[in-house]
Model the fold of this input.
Amino acid sequence: MRFVDFLNSKQGLRAARNHCFELNGVVLGHFTALFLHDNQIIFYQRW
Done:
């Protein structure tokens, strides 16, 4: 089975979608942590 055929199949689409969600979750998690960390520093410097 070729990779393109796998992606075109429903199973392949589901796997790719799940993988994208996991990737997005990791990126969002890191971004949120960095964002909150920066805001805490700004918040502490303000007081």
The two ends are 62 Å apart (CA to CA). Residues 39 and 45 are 10 Å apart (CA to CA).
